[in-house]
UniProtKB/TrEMBL annotation:
Gene3D superfamilies: alpha/beta hydrolase (3.40.50.1820). This is Alpha/beta hydrolase. The keyword Transmembrane helix does not apply. It comes from the Bacteria. Keywords: Hydrolase. GO terms for molecular function: hydrolase activity. It comes from Bradyrhizobium iriomotense.
């Protein structure tokens, strides 16, 4: 019997989040307010060792969107750095060289490896940077970043292609590399209630140095200011350089995390 490859491929395709989840993204404002209210609890997170952290904004966002994250990490003792490239209008291949130069600048100025925290598209950039320059990268944390499976399964794909001039189908080898194992420790923070990207596009392959962390009920636009997500970022960055242990879902935000599921992977 002949195999219908097109039909088989279509059956594997993921769909973007539905209209209900998309409209519910407005709750991101409440997540930000919750972080302000719960700031005393957030400051109980493990303290940093002063190493640099480069915060990469999502699609259509600028350094302003990462300001709460940078401020929080600075208060915990990290050298939090902005990407200084204006608004993120997409174009993975277009920004690669400039972004790597920014990473090299921070690495040279501090003399230390740089952790990368990327929100949405910024997380895709972060994973690519870790592949390009593992000698300069210490750790990668992504927040709602669509780098795996069918990466077209987002509600921003068409706009991304229109503004960046890139088609998601292009550069298949690069996309496969970004979705694969990284040479540095990494954590992917995501939510099944994400209204912009299908949560399955955020799943990395769990390993001895890589994990997925699910946050209940978080929105896409609020994930970078969600108190449980902020705590998880701080906890992951506090690990000594070169070491990795699984995220401990205990603590003040324990109720916000799904238990680790070994069956969930890219």
């Amino acid at each position: 019997m002949p195999v219908d490859r097109d039909g088989a491929e279509a059956s594997r395709r993921l769909r973007p989040p539905g209209l209900g989840l998309l409209l519910a993204e407005a709750r991101g404002l409440f997540e930000f307010n919750a972080s302000l209210f719960l700031s005393p609890l957030l400051m109980r997170a493990p303290k940093g060792d002063g190493h640099p952290v480069l915060a990469l904004p999502g699609f259509l966002a600028s350094d302003l969107s990462m300001a709460p994250m940078r401020r929080y990490l600075h208060e915990l003792g990290y050298d939090a750095q902005a990407w200084r490239m204006g608004r993120n209008l997409g174009g993975l291949t277009r920004v690669r060289e400039t972004l790597r130069s920014r990473l090299a600048e921070i690495h040279a100025a501090t003399g230390r490896k740089v952790s990368l925290v990327g929100w949405s598209l910024g997380g895709v950039y972060a994973r690519d940077l870790a592949l390009q320059a593992p000698d300069m990268v210490r750790y990668v944390v992504t927040l709602g970043s669509p780098f795996a499976n069918d990466v077209r399964a987002t509600n921003a794909t068409r706009l991304y292609e229109a503004l960046s001039g890139e088609r998601v189908e292009d550069f298949s080898e690069l996309r496969e590399a970004i979705a694969g194992d990284l040479p540095v420790p990494s954590s992917s923070i995501y939510s099944r209630s994400d209204g912009i990207v299908n949560w399955k596009t955020c799943l990395l392959h769990p390993s001895e140095r890589a994990e997925n962390i699910e946050v209940y009920f978080a929105s896409h636009i609020g994930l970078g200011v969600n108190p449980a997500a902020l705590w998880a970022v701080a906890d992951r960055l506090a690990q000594p350089e070169g070491e990795f242990w699984p995220f401990d879902r205990a603590g003040p935000f324990a109720i916000a995390y799904a238990p680790p599921d070994p069956t969930v992977s890219a």
